[in-house]
Amino acid sequence: MSFVFEPEPRVTLPIKGSGQLFPVRRVYCVGRNYAEHAREMGHDPDREPPFFFQKNPDNLLPIPDGETGNFPYPSKTEDVHHEIELALALKAGGTDIPVDQAMACVYGYAAAFDMTRRDLQGQAKKAGRPWEIGKAFEHSAPCTALVPAEEVGDIGDRRIWARVDGAIRQDGRTSAMIWNIPETIAYLSGLFELRAGDVILTGTPAGVGAVTRGQVLEGGVEGIGTLRLRVA
């Protein structure tokens, strides 16, 4: 058997302090998983069941430590927003994973931005259509290298923040998630069969906002890493 054309290389994420690479299978994102962010988007933050959308694996844009990456301003939009998130990467999966076993599936963590074409997402919402046009465009998930879970320890209460041109925009704690990490993994595994290589973006705190060409965007998660981007 042969391919009709040469396939694209496998999407991978670097692992901090290692020459190894993490092979990415799927990218899931949790919507409105911080109460204050739910309020700023005009929604009730009561603990309703979580919902999910997906980005494509090749939307991930790893930024090396200490470097300023380029985020190309995407097409067909005039309202691109930053959303800083804790990302987790799975080394194992399954279906209907119990909450008390979910953390055993986690390989490591990264800080990531869920960049969003907010105007296109808003249009899709009003029309009752999927969000991918606003969420799953090229370079829409800049991220740091992964840090193995055993080097991180308890991730349950870490500062998560973002600033634009030096001014703080988002400043929260991972403890403010409506659905915490093991609950998120357990719930998602009831909807999809999770596998090693899956990446989950766990939601963003309040303070999301627009970026414009030429601005410098920074964000990070305490004990995980910081990424720095210039909006190109």
Automatic annotation (TrEMBL):
Highest rank taxon of the organism: Bacteria
Gene3D superfamilies assigned to the protein according to its UniProt record, in alphabetical order: Fumarylacetoacetase-like, C-terminal domain
Gene Ontology MF annotations: acetylpyruvate hydrolase activity; metal ion binding
Protein name, per record: Fumarylpyruvate hydrolase
Keyword Amino-acid biosynthesis: no
Keywords assigned by UniProt, alphabetized: Hydrolase, Metal-binding, Pyruvate
Ranges of residues in domain Fumarylacetoacetase-like C-terminal: 27-231
SUPFAM superfamilies named among the record's database cross-references: FAH
